[in-house]
Amino acid sequence: MDLSIIIVNYCTYDLTKQTIESVINKNHPFSYEIYVVDNASADGSLENLKKDFYKESETGLIKFIANEENKGFAHANNLALNQISSKYVLLLNSDTIVVDDCIEKCIDYMENDNKLGAVGCKVVLPDGTLDKACRRSFPDFNVSFYRMTGLSHIFPKSERFGRYNLTYLDENETYEVDCLVGAFMLLRSAAIRQVGLLDEAFFMYGEDIDWCYRIKAAGWKIVYYSDAEIIHYKGASSKQKNKIIYEFYRAMYIFYNKHYKDEYSRIITAITYTGIWGMYGLKLSLNTLKINYGMIMPNKTPKEPVSQLSK
């Protein structure tokens, strides 16, 4: 098998169906299989998806995994990852549409460089703008500080201040990056075998950054490939705003403790913790009060792939 595609579903029947169809309705020059992992949906979406894709499941093209409990996006993907034996793996969000020959282009690009551990494509929002999360730097102290203080928003074209989402780089060019977004991440299985599965300490947010961090640390390259594209209906499956805010900042805390805490002084760590949980408290308070904080703060609620409440 050339490729295994993993799609996590959580109460997103229409979106997930659309995502699957955007894959299987194309003629691909490679062999592939799709794993649909349901995170204990209570809306009947798993049953409906099984009915819709009965023929595909009978032929083995689509395999369904029913998770009895929603333990997060990482856990759901790991259930499928433990079953696959393909050369490549694609994490694909349930609120995306694969455009044209996006997957084929990415696989071809991977085939031409055996040092590539992961490739991400251009992720476009429905309004045609770039989903900035699809190419990022690791959130070390400086990068996170510039984002939290709004400097990355004020000076997006600055190589110093715009590192969080690499806004100073041309979105239509291809280059190496630190990390990609879990909405579309094509990985070489050899890299996964070397670094291990997704870290299930992350419920939603952060597990993709952590994976990329470990992949790069193991010597693999990670590339943002602009010639391939998907559409991301970001936030379409988001119904738990407070949960989303909490998990975003919790992921920052976990990531810092895992990869940076030992590198920085106690003072820097104290500043980091204060920044993370201070921002969390502010965002939570504003959201609870139903204030349009997007007009007050330079940065809105974290814009990550929220179908990862499939997470």
Task: Outline the structure in words.
- The chain is α/β, with parallel strands linked by helices.
- It has one domain: Spore Coat Polysaccharide Biosynthesis Protein SpsA, Chain A.
- It has eleven helices and nine strands.
- The protein has helices spanning 13-24, 45-52, 54-59, 73-81, 102-111, 141-148, 151-154, 189-195, 207-217, 241-259, 266-288; strands at 3-9, 32-39, 62-67, 88-92, 96-98, 116-124, 175-176, 184-188, 221-232.
- Strands 1, 2, 3, 4, 5, 6, 7, 8 and 9 form a nine-stranded mixed beta sheet that branches.
- The radius of gyration is 19 Å and the shape is globular.
- The two termini are 26 Å apart.
- Keywords: Transferase.
- Residues 4-192 form the Glycosyltransferase 2-like domain.
- It comes from Methanobacterium bryantii.
